[in-house]
Each structure stands twice: as C-alpha cells, then as structure tokens.
Amino acid sequence: MALRHLVRRTIATVARPAASLIEMPRATRSTARKAAITEDQTEVKTVVATVKPEPDLETEPEAHSPRKVKKVVKKVTTKVKTEVRVKEEVVAPEAKTKVKTKRKAIKNEEAADEDEAGEGEDAKPAPKKRKTKAEKEAEENMILAPRTAVSSLKRSMFIGAHVSGAGGIQNSVQNALKIGANAFALFLKSQRKWESPPLAVENRDAWHVKIKELGYDAAKHVLPHGSYLVNLAQVEKDKADQAYGNFIDDLKRCDALGIELYNFHPGSTGGDTKEAAIGRIAAQLNRAHKETERVVTVLECMCGSGNVIGSTFEELRDIIALVEDKKRVGVCIDTCHAFAAGYDLRTPEAFQETMKRFDEVVGMGYLKAIHLNDSKAPFASHRDLHANIGTGFLGLRAFHNVMNFAPFQNIPVVLETPIEVKGPDGKMIEDKQIWADEIKLLESLIEADVESAEFLQKDKELQEKGAAERKRIQEQVDKKAEKDAEKAKKDALKEAKKGAKEKGSMEKFLTKKKPKKKEKENESGCDSCGEGDGE
Predict the structure, then answer these.
(1) Which biological process, per GO, is one annotated for this protein (predicted)?
(2) Is residue 240 scored above 60 in pLDDT?
(3) Domain span including residue 257
(4) Are the C-beta atoms of residues 173 and 179 closer than 8 Å to each other?
(5) Domain assignment present for 476
(6) Checking CA distances to 486, which of 102, 263, 288, 302 falls within 20 to 30 Å?
(7) 488 domain-assigned
C-alpha cells in the first residue's frame, strides 16, 4: 500500500498539467495538448529496484510481488510529455524514477554557469585564432638577428645557413636576411624528386631583384646543394642518365641565376671498384662543364661510410686529376664529415696538421666552401650525425680554429646544424632562431681569447647541453665496435680453420705413400730361410 501511494503521488506531481485537458471539450483537446507539449519535454525513465521492499506493517503483511510493481511503474511511464522545467528524482523502495529535461535554454544556462565558475578538468581549450595572410607574411619576414657587416669583422668571414626556397627561389634571399646571414645555401628545386617543373621566369627575375636589393653576391656567397638522389658514379646506363639529367638541370639553373658555385656529394661505387667509380664521376663532370658556362662544381668531403666516395683527400684529388677544366672544380670541407672520416680539427695543432695535409694532397686553391657542423658521433666513427655548434664531439674550440684560419675568408661558410624543436602541441617545428644565434656565436669567435672566462663558460654550457646525446651515440658506436670486433674474430678463426684444413689436405696429398715395387727374388736362395750365395 505504501508503494502504491508513493507512485500515485509521483503521477500527480509529474503529470499534473495533463489533468486540465480532461476538463476541456474533445474538439479543443488536441489543440490544447499541442500547445502544452512544446520543446520543453521531459523523459521519465524508470529503473526497477533490486532491493526487496519492506512490508507496510499497518496494512500489509508482506511486500507486493515484483510483477505488480512493474505494472504500476509502467503506468507512470505513460505520462512522459509534460511542461516540467525542473529536474526531479523520485526514488521508491523497488523503483527509481528519473526525470530529465531537454530544454535547450536550460542547457545554455548551465553551460554559462560552468564558464563563470572557471575552467574544469574537461574544459576544452578555446579554438586558436587563424592568422591572416598579412600576419603570416609579417612573421615570415621578421628579422631574428641583424646582419653583421663583414667589413666590421676582423676577418672577412661570410657565414650563413642552408635556408628554404619554398614558394619561390627568391624567398631564400629573404630567409637568409631573416637570420642575419652573409652567405647561404639552398636547394634549387625539390631534392626528393627526379623531375621538377622548369625555373619560372617570374621567379628568376624576382631572384635577381631580391639579390640586388638585399646586397648578396650570388656568384661568390651562394652555395646551392645538389639533390641527394644523384649519384654520378652510377654504373647502369639508365640510372646514370637519370642522375646526369637532374645534375645538369641544376647547373643550368645556376647559370640563369648568376650562381657560380654548386656543391654536391660525389657518389657511391655501387659495388664497383673506387677507381672505376672515380673515373665515371670525372667523365660526367667533363660532360657537364661543356654544356654550361661558368659554374664551379664543388665536391663535398664525406664521412667514409659504406661505398661512399670522397671521404679521403686522396679520393677528392683523384677526381680532380681527371677533370679537364680545373677552373670548374673545387672542394667543400664539411667539418662533421671530415671529423667522422678521421681528420681531427679539435686542437690548434690537430687543425693545422689536417689543413696542411689537405694542402699537400688536394691543394688549398681548390677550397671553395665550408659546411659548419658539430658531430654527435665520436672521432673517426664514419657516422654522419650533425650537431649544433659546440654541443658535439668537436666542441667550441674546433670552431674557433675554423673562424681564425685565413684561407677560409671570402668563401661561403654555411651552417647545416639541426633546428627542429618540439612545439607547444608536441609536434616538431623549425626554430630559425637557432641559426641566427649560431651565426652571432661564430662571428664572436673571430680573434676571441679561448682562455677567457667568457669563452670557457660558453664552451662548458654547450658541452653540457649536448652531453646526453653524445653519450647515447657513443654507446651505439661502442656497441657496434664490439660487434664488428667479434665478427672479425669469428671470420679470422673461420679463415684459419679453412686454411688449416686446406693445408692439411695438401700435406696429406703430398705425403701420400707411393706403392712399393716388388723386389726380385734372389735366384739362389729364398727370403724365408735367409740363405744366399755366400757361405
């Protein structure tokens, strides 16, 4: 009985507005009902309780069966469309009724209340405002560091970085100015594709305007980098023709842009001998020089991994020796590559010895450019891992040596250091401020006192910054060295066993007993009795 009274009260509370419809004439009930039931609708959800009801001690000896309770609840659920605007919850011993509103206005009010209360754990961040085209252009052209007049430096060092030419090759000039560069490198087209659209006339003209406007010397201080796809030592004719086509296209672009230096990786043997590969590289250069006007093809020194050519000064010398027009060929020393290949640059003595060796083998007259990179990998590791200036195994002292070496004046000195950092959203982005800061750091090393507190503090700071990465790479190098040593030991043992086996077989063959000839029997006696001619 108690449950029945409670359910009746629930019906009376929830469905009260519907009672007025009964008193209306039948003709007007439909219209009134539609007016009463608007967007403000309420769902009445019922959940049958699993708890056994307590009996009404006054009127009932025992609780009603669950089946009867369900029937009563179903009667409640028929009254679902009302004008109720307040959330109510009626809980019975065996049934729990929830009334939820759907009114949009109430939801909006609740959302407003949450906003006023402050940000909650589930609060969504406000959408980022998109930058206008003008704002993007202003950000792209913002100067990160002023360009230093080379005439104000104690040495004529033209320092820059490898900048982007995205959106038009003329944009690379502005990008160089942005980081305070006095020289720069770039890709003349996409270095990831074999085929690219021809150089647009409007981009070519805009390049010449920008170069003149910002005061760069395209002939002396711009150093394009060749495609990583190109291998001039390619053996197969189809692949060799493809490589040459890409290469000569770049040289012709240089001619159109007034650029007179072009840096590229010499190539790889492809399993052939180095002598043969060097011959093919020189042949392709001779062919290219005849098809272009004045571009100097600059061989970049490499780190000595695998079948790559150009990791020793002798290999560079051998290529140059086969080039017919010696004025059209030169060398770019990459500090990371040279160090990884086994040429030390860290101390003044080691640096001078390396440069002396280069002059003796190649000739300082062939030096046309420098790539500046520290090395994440240790000395003579043959690993091409660029690091930011002063953070790698070369250290700041090596770059002090570079910046104060007279033959490096008046040629492009180009940074290829990493500039990718993790952005606020966790994605990797380019931070060009790194290049701007490194250019200023390098300029400050000209005739700097390496024993000064300022230099020593900066050296220490940069070394600490790169310590974790150096340790990680050193462990990789050591692990590989152990594997290589173990493999070499096993190979040597295998060869020794093979050699011993072959030697044993040969000795066995040489010492094999020849069959004995039958001795002639003594005509006057026999062997068994030992009798003979004599007494």
Answers:
(1) base-excision repair
(2) yes
(3) 139-467
(4) no
(5) no
(6) 302
(7) no
How far apart CA 444 and CA 455 sit, in angstroms, is: 10
Query: How many structural domains are present in the chain?
Result: 2
pLDDT for residue 516? 56
List pLDDT tens digits, range 32-82.
555 544 444 444 344 444 444 444 434 343 444 444 444 444 444 444 444
Residue 36 domain flag: yes
289 is known as an active-site residue: no
Q: Which residue has the higher pLDDT, 217 or 84?
A: 217
Contact 442, 345 (CB under 8 A): no
Closest CA to 436 of 52, 175, 79, 119: 175
Question: Is 72 part of a structural domain of the chain?
Answer: yes
pLDDT, tens only, 178-208: 999 999 999 999 988 999 999 999 999 999 9
**Given the residues 221, 386, 400, 470, the one annotated as active site:** 386
Active site residue 255: no
384 has catalytic annotation: yes
Q: Give catalytic status of residue 371 as yes or no.
A: yes
Indicate the residue among 447, 467, 487 that finishes a domain: 467
Q: Which of 86-100, 166-180, 349-363, 397-411 has the lowest mean pLDDT?
A: 86-100
Q: Which of 109, 115, 202, 228 is catalytic?
A: 228
Last residue of a domain, one of 467, 491, 522: 467
